[in-house]
Amino acid sequence: MVTRQALKGRETAALLRGIFKGSPCSQQSGVLRRLQVYKHCIPLVESGDLHLGKASEIIGLLMLEVDLPGHALAELATLFVDVIKAGSLSNGKSLELFSTVLTALAGSKESLAYGKGNPSQKSVKMIRLMFSKLDLQEIPPLVYQLLLLSAKGCKKTVLEGIIILSLSSPLFTTWVATMPLDQLRHVEGTVILHIVSVINLDQDLGEELIRHLKTEQQKDPARALCPFSVALLLSVAVKHRLQEQIFDFLKTSITRSCKDLQFLQASKFLQDLFPQQYDVTTVILEVVKNSAFGWDHVTQGLVDLGFSLMESYEPRKPFGGKAADTSYGLSKMPAQQACKLGASILLETFKVHEPIRSDILEQVLNRVLTKAASPVSHFIDLLSNIVVSAPLVLQTSSSKVTETFDNLSFLPIDTVQGLLRAVQPLLKVSMSVRDSLILVLQKAIFSRQLDARKAAVAGFLLLLRNFKVLGSLSSSQCSQAIGATQVQADVHACYNSAANEAFCLEILGSLRRCLSQQADVRLMLYEGFYDVLRRNSQLASSIMETLLSQIKQYYLPQPDLLPPLKLEGCIMAQGDQIFLQEPLAHLLCCIQHCLAWYKSTVHLCQGAEDDDDEEEEEDVGFEQSFEEMLESVTRRMIKSELEDFELDKSADFSLSSGVGVKNNIYAIQVMGICEVLIEYNFNIGNFSKSKFEDVLGLFTCYNKLFEILKEKAGKNKSTLGNKTARSFLSMGFVSTLLTALFRDNAQSHEESLTVLRSSTEFLRYAVSVALQKVQQLEETGQTDGPDGQNPEKMFQNLCKITRVLLWRYTSIPTVVEESGKKKGKSISLLCLEGLLRIFNTVQQLYTARIPQFLQALDITDGDAEETDINVTEKAAFQIRQFQRSLVNQFSSAEDDFNSKETQSLIIVLSTLSKLLDPASQQFLQFLTWTVKICKENALEDISCCKGLLSLLFSLHALYKSPVGLLRELAQDIHACLGDIDQDIEVESRSHFAIVNAKTAAPTVCLLVLGQADKVLEEVDWLIKKLTSLGSDTSEDSSQASNQAQALEKGVILQLGTLLTVYHELVQTALPAGSCVDTLLRSLSKTYAILTSLVKHYIQACRSNSNAIPARLEKLVKLSGSHLTPQCYSFITYVQKKKKKKEDEAAAISTVMAKVLRETKPIPNLIFAIEQYEKFLIHLSKKSKVNLMQYMKLSTSRDFRINASMLDSALQEHNAEDAENEPDNNQVRTRLSAVTDGFPLP
């Protein structure tokens, strides 16, 4: 009747009202009748036969009459699911009714009885089917209704459906392809808001969300932590009650993800099993990107998470150097990666969300101030990046910056310099901020605190570098780049240029006062003047005059007076203590560099212009004064003897006396002055023979002092000589000097260079200084001297130095050189050490520029395009050169073998091998060569053996699992050391000649066990993954099952081969000590992992009735036949050796304590074996397979009874008992001997 009325277009609503009125819900028959109407009308509306208006009328009436009992509503919900499953929804009009049904169901007082049997799966399917049929805009209301429904006790089910089927899921690829991205993101944001609003009303739902995601993460991190779920968590985290739980969960997930990625990257075996690597950091950064689509509710959570990560995983100690380079050495550590992720989250959030910028900036500045005692370089880096990304944002927050300036005096100098560099662009834009900074600095310069005065000097030097006076030359080394908006803001060019000159001269006046302060303050000035001069050339006159007046205080102008400088004026005495007052060598170094720059730049430019003759004459005056002074000092320093400085061999250099301290200070100053003059004379000499003779004369003076300090250091460890003072040569000069000494083939230079090349000591000195500079760069990220903080210049100098050292080392072998050397390291060996440090430094500091570095070393391919650089090929070419050197070492006579050089060569090869692509042919060739070297060379040097095997293991792990290699090495160790049963002759199977009597134990044995432990860690990690896959009940569990089978196969094969490794080692007559203890601990770990595998199969048998695989039976059989019996024999062997050792020792109490300590691994191993056998029994019962048939019980438990001794003791006891009452103490003494060293219970 209803159908006929509807199809004919008649008044259907009146008919339905009549039916409902006659069917009250208070009667069972009325409820059934109403249900029948609903069941009939829903398919009718979806059939498409009705007019759209008529269908809307029917649905509207049905929505009004939906007040049904709970069981009827559940039946209606089931009906909708069946309709959706059948695919009979034509227009989706009836889904409006479904939303009302769910709302009514959520409000029903009856318990939810829908979906008995498997409610989770049915509900998830229901949600999936509904989502796929709904329009995009209809999803948020449906989600809200489902969340209300969750109050009935199916929270986990609803959350699982929403998260798994969120808009980030692959199920919605069709929407992503057809709908605008902003619409999708807005819908996601609305869904998140609905969930958060319901969680605010129902806290249990929030806790259920966290529990669900933790569980899912164990199974599949990619499914649990998608961008949608992370955004949801961060939105919920705003509620303080759940914030700690959520952040702990996210931080744990981040560090675990970083560790897993690190784990996978180090093992080809794991990479094959897990080709797709999940990285949670990418997911979180995607959340930041998505939050641009109006997700304001996520931003606060992102900011809190970012700061939480930066604080939880901050650097633990200062690394030195400039702020930007502090964490370069640890970027691969999971903690450092988490810290960097926190900085990236904050930076990207800062870029995307303008309203929260001031909050982020304020929090960063607060942490820089409040965490002054701990490293804050990561916060300063973030501040610098923030300023670069949005330069003018600081102008609106200038009050926060000026508040920070007020605390500069209390901050460490490194923090002050980093902070000022970071906010420097603001000083060009905001005059008020600049003025407030100047006030703070002027107060600080008169502070009693040394750090405050150093902070003032650092601030003033920064201002001088960045406020150019009109007419200053442009510099390629500009300060921190600023945005176009700032340049536009700085429009008052005339005012700025005129004001800047007066401003800079005022600052210089303040800095001149610092030249009478402590040495540390003066030192900062001398190191900073060169950069000021280079960036603000119009200040040249003022700076040079200042330096001239300062040096005149210590310069003795009389041409025949020796020494030429007043060293006694450089020190200051306070009571019994003596301090350096004037760092004279640094002052001279500053003069030398400033003069060289002035002559090469400003003077040439002024010489081309004739419009300012008076100023030019004045400048030429101080230039001439400096040149005459340096010439005179050079001449007189060469003539001076050590006695003129009171620094001959008889002088006291101990730090325990005032005279010794003074002499040490004098010596370092004189050596520094010599070095400064060496650089000056070389640079102005233009390859003049006389100048190079002066250079050699200065070096002679330097070397005499150096040798005296070195000799004194050997006698007295408290002298400064045991720490080589930093060289005053600049990095740029070192690269120039080395190139001239070793690679300059110009005919016109040959005569003058011969003067320097004739001195082996000078050549060794030049390479040593290069080594020292590279070491400083590696440790701090910068070097002393001009351009020391310029990464580009440092990189260029590194390339030059590397080319020279590489040529020198490969051209002149150490053997040839050492035949004529007297003492000290050979130049070739120093070159090799330098190359090793350079390769490390480049990989740490200049990772992105490795292709350019390798190309710079290859002079045959200098014109290649940067895009064409093949890093693997270039690295392989360099590797081949060092391979030849290593082969030459192995093939040399025993007397010519250089252990130190061989070790360095192996480390260089190991470092360069990291640049090879593991999938390349070159990598395989290098691995093959390494295996061949280990097999053919009977190397007896312990350190070289350790280095070579470590290289072999690291390479092999990136090619395939090293278990087969470990088995061969274990067989060689067994053959070399013999069997624990002396009557058994071990078959001689020598695979690797490197395993011999000197290296087998402990060196090779410990390396093999160490590598075996790494394999065990991988297996343990895989078993955990297996367990999580086994608990996966999702629809794509078939895929998980296939992956689980692959993992099981890999785990069992790895363990099977490892058992054969231990089978060899436990039969080996290992010497007592580290080898035995390490092996026992490793065996315990092996049995623990075998137990974990057995537990996994017990769990698998509970969840399904599948039989255990045949591979597992074979593994159990192998452990029962080839390992457990041998373990017990090995325990007996170890105890006999320790018993014998105890008997031979004199101090019984000490030895007993040591024996008890050493035998601790034995009971641990026995316990691990018994646990393994215990769970094998459980698995046998579950699987109906008798696995214990392969296991043989042993008497090696807590104690062993020696049967023969027991019989004899009992016979004696019986005989004595027949005569008289026995003494209990005597019997106990005899019986204790029977138990062979183990206590009776």
TrEMBL record:
It comes from the Eukaryota. This is FA complementation group I. One of its GO terms (biological process) is DNA repair. Residues 33-120, 124-199, 298-461, 728-952, 965-1206 form the FANCI solenoid domain. Residues 204-290, 475-710 form the FANCI helical domain. Pfam families: FANCI_HD1, FANCI_HD2, FANCI_S1, FANCI_S2, FANCI_S3, FANCI_S4. GO terms for molecular function: DNA polymerase binding.
